[in-house]
Amino acid sequence: MLPLPTTSPPLFQPFTIKDLTIPNRIVVTPMCIYSSLDGLFTNFHLASIGSFAINGVGLIIQEATAVLPNGRITPGCAGLWDDAQVFKLKEIVDFVHIQGGKVGIQLAHAGRKPEDVIAPSGGAHLQWDKHHRAPCELSFAEIQQVIDAFGAAAARAARAGMDTVEIHGAHGYLIHNFLSPLTNQRTDHYGGSLENRARFLLEVVEAVRANFPAEKPIFLRVSASDLVEVEGIEDSWEAEHTIQIAKWVRDAGVDVLHVSSGGNTSQQKILTSPGYQVPFAEQINCAVPGLAVVAAGFILDGPQAEEVLKSEKADFVAAGRTFWRHPNFALGAARELNVKAAFSQQYSRGRTIHS
User: What is the model's pTM?
Assistant: First the structure.
């Protein structure tokens, strides 16, 4: 083994946002595992999240967690609309903290993708595809109910001891539906101009910020583009719109932007390759000072993640399914970068191979 460097590479340097210091720049992105009953977290969640914490991840963001029962993608999705859902969540948080990691939770409403399909605008022409139901247009009162539910869920996350919450504004779920002109055809003050289409998001941010400790950061997941290149569709959600709302949410209380893409229409064209979404993160990172940025998209190894940070394309690097294949991804990245990374004290004797 090569001599250990005297200074850790950026991937294994801590990063502080407000009062939260994350021990390294590796993030587990939220991944649905459809293992809840009545929205309750289970021992499988504890084992899954715990496996990442044991293996040295800096920040784990738990799966999309519905703020209302009708906001679940499936009946097996997690929820945080009821106080009873806090107990198991706190057990998971406490375990991650014991291992030296940090943990957040993604708060979501699935919009026009669940079984109970709601959206900013209704009609058969706005259904995701032929396998989904046509969405019903939300009334003003229903919009306010969802906003209030995001705030209440943030308060429950705080009671569970979460280090951060992430608002899910990506992948064709409700907030993304409001942002994109493809799915928002309202004529009131929640539709039309970019300012109006962003109003719902900004009101959600306000509700979450008011109900989550001021000293703790808030993340926002966004799709930087609808990824639509179809003849006849000229008006969709694109990177320049994301840059503008990034400035607005920064001023409204969001501290970190977690950048993804697509998910809002079945007509999307996604060309996947290692790091394929990183250019979107880089664009935003360059254009919006004062907002930390998470890059994602087929992050497969330590050198790839390190290059994103060294070239200042983002402040964090997130991986998802890579962690399902390799729960010890962070330790593997440390070996690849010749770093002695921190991981579970109970496993510490495993650092050395004895003959």
Answer: 0.94
